[in-house]
Model the fold of this input.
Amino acid sequence: MKKIFTLLFCLSITFFLCQKIELKTVTDSSQVFKGEINGVPITMQLDYSGIIDCHQYQHFVDGWYYYDKYRKKIPLTGIYSLGEMYLYNFGDQQKKNSKFFKEKLTGKILDKADSIANSLKPKEVFIFPGQDADQEVSGTFSTGNKNLSARLLTKDSRIYRFNNYLNLPNHKKINTYDIINKAGGNALVSYASDQLGNRILLYFEEPSNFNYCGMCGAGEGEKGYRVLYFTKDWNYRSFDEYLTESCRENIEDTRMTRNKDSKTLTFGIPKTSSSAGYTLTVDVKNASVTRSR
Done:
């Protein structure tokens, strides 16, 4: 599939040189959050610092927080697990106990994290349980005998993020992370305009499963094309997705051919246990994909 993208890129590079559309990939491994402890403003920075076992979205984090009024950084270490966060400050023993915490937890079941951390007698603890994506991140802050409310002024607490920024005409910009999914892996192929609006054709390769120890993990198992639809003034509307390979959908042994001018690719998708076989026709010039039997 990478050969396919190389071909498509070479075909359309001249076309793109005069356009104001580009895709930029930025992988975040650090986030700064604004928040509050019992209504008092704070700032928190958290850095990705390695996978605990197999899951990309279950990992260690290190960082700090401070009260905005004083700006004195207080160190933190802990874990991010599928939307939940447990963050600890061990006081004067921060460096030593953070190392011990990670060594004891690496490769183990995450429900041991709290007991391991508590055995080290943390001075302060943030706990942010997972919650609905349309709500700000809320939880508790414990210090001594006090249990206070805490929140982060964001609806997305992920530290590790795969951003694919599309820079569009009219100084507009969108992130496929926000409109398609969190997996990234998109590459710009072409774009076209007609009386209905504008279209962008993307090729993608992304993991089938962020849990690399689970089914379909440890590989770029999902491959195919996406067509993004925009209005004439480049307001985003929707997208369609077309798989050419998939571990999740059991799509494999796909046959690809191209016409003489190399601007149209045809994929023969074989029959699977859950769907009949079909054909995908990728029209690079017109930034479109059609599916037929």
Remarks:
- DSSP finds four helices and 19 strands in the chain.
- The mean pLDDT is 89.
- The helical segments are 2-17, 94-105, 113-118, 176-179.
- The longest strand covers residues 40-51.
